[in-house]
Structure formats: C-alpha cells, structure tokens
Amino acid sequence: MKMFHPSKRHLHRFADRDGTPRDLEPIARHLRECQGCRTILQGIRSLGERARRMDTGAPRPEVWDRIRNTVANGETPILPAADPRIVHSSWRVPASLAAGLTVVAGLAWMVFASSELQSEASDLRFAPGRPVSGEQINVRYRAVGTLADQDRLRLRALYRRAGDSEDSRAVEHTEVALLTRRDDNTFHGTFRLPPDVVFAAFAVEDKSAAILDSHGRIGWELLTYTDGLPLYDALLQRVLARLAIGDLAAGLMAAQVLTASYPEVVEGWVVQSGLEQRALGPTAFDSLRANHLARVRHFDRALATSRNTEQVAWEYFYALTWGDEARTQHWLAKLRELAPDHRFVVQLLVLAIVGQSADETPGAKLAALDSLRYSIGQAYLSIAQEGYRVAVAAGHTADVKVWVDRLLTLQPWTRPGLADELSDQPTTRTIGIELLEEELRSQIERGENDRFLYQTRRLHHAYRARQRRRLIGALAEARVATGDTAGGRVLIDSVVSVGWDLRLFQIAADLREEAGDLQGAVEMLALVSVDPTSGDGNQLRAQALQLSSPRHWEEQLAIARRRMIAETFEDERRHPLSEAVRVVDLEADRPRDLRDLLRGQVSVVAVWHPYCTMCESELVRLQGRLARLEGARLVVVALGSPSQAAIDRLRTGGLTARVVIDTHGDVPRTFGIWGARGTFVLDESGMVRFAFSASEDVPRQVVALQTGTPQVAE
Amino acid sequence: MRSGSFQESASLAGRLRAGDTTALGPLYEQYSAEVYRVGILFLGSEVDAEDLVHDVFAGLPRALDNYDERGVFGRWLRRVAARTALMKLRALKRERDMFRERLWELRTHEPPPDVDKQMDLAAALASLPERLRIVFVLKEVEGMSHQEIGRLLGITVGASKVRLFRAREILRTYLES
Fold first, then answer.
1. For residue A194, is the peptide bond before it cis, meaning its omega torsion is within 30 degrees of 0?
2. What pTM value is reported for the model?
3. Mutation target vs B (from A37, A39, A55, A73; most B CBs, 10 A cutoff)
4. ipTM
5. Residue numbers of A between 492 and 511 with CB closer than 8 Å to B
6. Residue A500 contacts residue A530 (beta carbons within 8 Å)
7. pLDDT of B165 over the 80 cut
8. What is d(CA A498, CA A492) in angstroms, rounded to the nearest whole number?
9. CA pair distance A144, A254, nearest whole angstrom
C-alpha cells in the first residue's frame, strides 16, 4: 500500500515545532519510519544552523573613528524606535466620489476609478477608468491573502464584442498582462483593449493559476465609453456576461442600468422585461405586463416616424412579448417594409416553412430552407437551427451532416451537445460518434484557451476531466449501440478505473451485464451504491442480488467503500487554522472565533459572497445533500457585510444552517482563498482537509473523514 | 566577538543613557560585529553595512531612551539594527546582482572551515528575493518569532511563515543542485 508522506509545509512546521502535539505527533511517528523525510527535515534544520554560523566579518577600524566624530559633533542619527509602519497610499476614494469621477493621467500617481462591485479587501483599478475601445489601460491591483506574497501576477480577461451571444464559450478568454510588484506592495501592469472590444471582465491569478481572484466570479468589469457615457453595447454585453455565469439577479441589475442609461432604446427594455419575468416569477406577471405595455405604447408614439431598423424590430418584439396583438402586426409590417432580411423577419419565414402542412415532406422543407439561406444569406442562425431539427427528425444522414456543419460553422461551441444528442439516436448515431471523437481530439488541442475567468487551472482540469469522461461515456454507449460492444466496453473501462463518476459507473454496470460479465457489473453497482448521493441503496442491492450472492455483494461494497475513500483522500490537504478567525455569529449576534464552531464533528464551511445571488440556491442544495448524512455540520460564512435582504433571501430559500459574518477579513487569509467561492470540509479537530470542493463531492468527503484517514503503510 | 554578560551590557547601556559616552566604546566592541552581520545579510554590501553600524552606534545614546531594560540588550540592539536596515533597504532599492557580487567578497580574517559551503550559502542567500531573504534572516539568524517579524515588517504571521517556507525551499534546492 502507498505510504502517505507529510507535505513539505508540514515538515517545515514540524522543524519549527509549529502546531499542537496532536498535529505534530503523526508526523513524528512517520519520521521514525521514513528515512527520506528525516533527510528532508535535517536539510531544513541545517539551513538555519549554517546561516547562523556564517562568518560575515567585522567593520573596519575606521568605522569606530567615524562614530566617535559624529557623537562628538552632536550629530546623532535618529533611529526607528518602533517597528516601521507600512504606509499604504490612500488610493481608496470615497464612495460618493468613486461613483462618477476619474482623474486621468497627469498626477504623479493616478487615481483609479473604482469598479462598481468591490470585494471587501482586494481591489483592481483601471486608468483610465472610462476608456474607449482600443485604448491602453494601466492596472493597479491590491492583493490580500496568499496572492499578496507573489512577485508577479497574471491578469486574465474575458473580452466581449458587440453582437456576442450570452454563451461564454463563444467569447474570448485570454491573458492580457503580467502584473509586477512595486514597493508599496501593489501590482501594476499595462495592456491595450482590442479595438472591437466593448466590455471586459478580469481576474487576477498567480503564475501557476492555482490561486485566483475573480471578484466573486463576476470579474473586475471594464466598460468602454463615449462622451462620458458607457456604450450601449458595453452595457448590454455586461448583462450577457452576468447571465453567462448564471447570475440572474446581477444580470437584472445590469439590465436596469442599461435602460436607465439608454431609456429610449427599445431592446434594453425587452431584455430587462425578460429577466424580470424570470427573476420575479409568475406572481409578478400582471404588474410587469401593465408596466411594459405602457412602455410599448410610449414607444409606439415615439417611433411613429422612425426608420431605425433595430428600434422598429425591437418594438415589434416588445409588443409580441407582452401580447399587444395590434401593435405587433403594425410594427411587423413596418419592419418588413424597412428591412425584409432582418433576422426577426427571417425567423418568421423559417417558422412558416417548417410549420407547413404535413403534406410537405422534410425534403421539401429542407429545400425551402436551403433556398431561403441562399437568397438571404448564410449567417442566419434560425435557418441553420430549424434546418438541423428538420433533418434530424427526418433521419436522413446526408442532410443531417450538411445542417450540422452549417450549425457548427455559426456556433462551434455547441458540438458536445449536438454530438451527445445525435449519438443517442439510431439514424444519426454514426454522425454523433464522429462528432464525439472530433470533440475529444479538439479538447486536447485546445489547451486552456477556454478556461473560464473564475476557474483555477486545477478546477478547469477537473471540469475538463468530467466533461471528457462524459463524452467518453456517450461514445461508449454509442459504440455498443452500433454493435461494437467490445469497443464500447474498452472505452468505458478506460474511464471507470480512475475518477469518480456515478453515471459512468452505471453505464459500465449495464454494459458489463449485457456482455455477461456479471461480476464486473456488480463491481460497478457497488461503486454507485457506496456514494452518499446515489439515492436508493435498496434498489441497487436488489439489482445486484439478481447478479450475485449476498456475500459477494457485501465484499464488493467493502472494496468500493475503500476505493471511494482512497480516491477521495487523494485530494486531501492538511491545513490547520492556526490563527483566530474572527466572525460574528448571526444567531447570537456576538463575535466568535470561527474555529470554536468547527470542532467536535466534521464540518463544511461554505464561503459566500453576498452579491453572488446564484450562490444562495447552491447553498440550499448543499444543505440538502448534507442533510442525508448524519453528523455533518454546515456553516455558511458571509464575506463583507450582507444586507438583511440577502440574509432574509437565504432563510426564505430554505437555508437553516448557521450563518456567520467575516467581519475582519480573516476567513480568506486563513483559508487561503480570495475572490472565488470556496467550500471547505474540515475534520473533527477543525483542520481543513478538503478545499474548493465541488458541491457533489462534499458528501463523499464528509463520509471519508467520518470513516477515517487511510492508515500509513508501504 | 566578545559578548558581555547581561548585567554588564545593561549597566553600560544605563551609563550611556545617563550621558556617559565612555560606555559607547565597550558596547561597540561587544556588539559591532553583530550589527555588521545584520547589515551584510540585509543590505548585502560592506559599505552599506558599515554605514548601518555607524548609524546604529552613533544614534544609540538617543535610542536608549526607548530601551526599557526588560529584554536582553543585544537582542534589543539587533532589533534596532534590523529596523534601521529595513529603512535603508527601502531607501537604497538595492539590486540583487550587487548583493550577490558583494557577498562573494566577504572579508574574513581567517578562512572559514568550509569556505566552499559558505560561499554556496552566500550565493544561495543572494539568489533569494529580498522579501524572502529578510524573513529568513530574521527568523533563522536573529531568532525572531513570526509574531515579531510580522510586527517589524507589517505582515501577517501567516505571510511570514509562507515566506520562510519559500526561502528555505529555494535555498535547499539551490544548495542541493
């Protein structure tokens, strides 16, 4: 069996006797048995000894003469009586000033306009704070926590251009600058905005992309301006950027800024109204409808003589959205007259073609769509989408291939989804298999160009690994379905031997059972069964007992449990919280040391940024996952100062777990995080054992800690 | 270097504080090499180290107003030297290459027993980023705690530990290669 060696950090701490006897004893025990670690420890200790013995010589005799002369002349230097105070430049402008003003270059140092959403301690400022597209931008970043100890940091950006869709896979993620440290412990760098970029969001990370500050996932935002006002497209892209990370509330806030800044642009109101419906739900529909219909009537008057195609198009859509039939027809007619090839008009033409009577064959519909595409242009997504659907429904392989290619030309990032769908159907399975294989190959070539702003390299790799396993699972199923059972099994076996994926285990169980490998099937079912999130254990047991004896099942469960625990512990860290973590307990409304709340049982600490509204439902889901386990405790730590409304939303949403507020910024520093959400699993002694856990992995980690650490052995 | 007893040093310091400048000489004789060492390890240059020695001892009579005689005098003096060296460091914006170059020119009255190893360690120290070197010197040579280092440098205890860890690892790698 594998020997678990203490990490280097732990050996250093052991060398300094830094830790409680309980922390140090396991290391001492290991050192008694491990020569390699003893050698490392000796090397650590010898550094100090050698440095202390280093002979650095003595000053020359004339130094004493200088001293005597100085003292005799009464010219005594003033020495620092106290420890030097580290002075930070006061670059934090008052909030009222930060709301609008920017002082541009010309000062000895530049005042950076504050970004709209500020994290509580780290800060990224741009100068100019209201750039135009293509302008050179100076960046100043104040790091805290573990990023503060770096010499250099990387600045990564998400660039959005006018017309970009919501899908963040469609936009550019790139490194834009290296930030270098200055004497005042801030980091500085420069980059140039590409001339066609209207909106950008930024994250700061260390050189290995292991530590990341993404300002609560949203990123540090930068909009482009004209005449002192943010560009309409910049504001719109900000809405889409926030929606792309799933933050509906933040997207709605951005949409409200959009309509406030450009109240006479119809599109903004359409966007806002759609988000309001999603955010506020059906109970608010009537009041929303009344408000928006009033605005439709306003635009009806305001645009009476307008020949602005986009305004006319969006007024048509606005009226359509809110059910003003008369105005819908009026504005559609005007749009058809003004711009017969506008995408809204084309979409109606497409729908007319595909909605034709049942007498029309799919071939005829596809020919009509082809003809439309030829006459009006290839860039219309609606034509490609409908053509794809008709072709797939008809099941003609040649047609499917043509329309898949057309769709992927416009939206190449949708290939995984298309591949999965196509591989699932007999008539299109071969195409699906080809696409799956292409996608798997391209993932290797892609590198990390598609790493999202809020993903560390490790999280990105884990995300990619999960994606890859799912694609291979789909490919395996498709191969078996085409009769290549052996090929399918080889694929599945290659991905179920490492990594933890319940769906793949289930697929493998089915394939093995179909192939007559009953023992192999039971092995997979056992893996599914031991996962605390897998649900009905009785059903799995019943399925397994059809394939094997009760004794064999119990043996497989024990093996599966050991594998689950061993694999879970491969992600283990050992990070004691060695300093006080000052928080205010909302329940008791008094200051506490968080560590006191985390001892005695396995605990899950979920760090929550109060302006991350999407996190609220995730917290409730996490609570639900943990509720099925006994003896696990969830503590939610709110960074900064959440509003009472935010707390109320959490409680209304069903969160009953203890919530504490990190009043002093101790949590990011002691947990080693900044700017990203984090979920941590701690053992009974209050030591962090798993960090940045995915929500679905947390129950396994809890069970693993409750079961106990693997024994150290060869 | 001769270290006086605790009582002897405290007595000399008391006399100096009372205006008896003849006490400065014995204190210089006892502690100048220690202060010079702080200068070499922080500032990396013999010239700057000698300047540090000059400033510390020339300023000692006035600085003793802040010595409360609770701690060991030598430790207090090295602390003052470290603070002064940090101020100089910030003022000088010392280049790393110069530091490396100067360390190769260590003057010794007798060759140290392991001159090659010493040169290796000197070069290794020179290769450290300044922030890491300072923490390493304060912890391993001056024997300060992480809390004291934190107060001196204006960093957290955690940051001090991280820097020490990184310094040690860089030194180990350098010396083993």
1. no
2. 0.56
3. A55
4. 0.80
5. none
6. no
7. yes
8. 11
9. 28
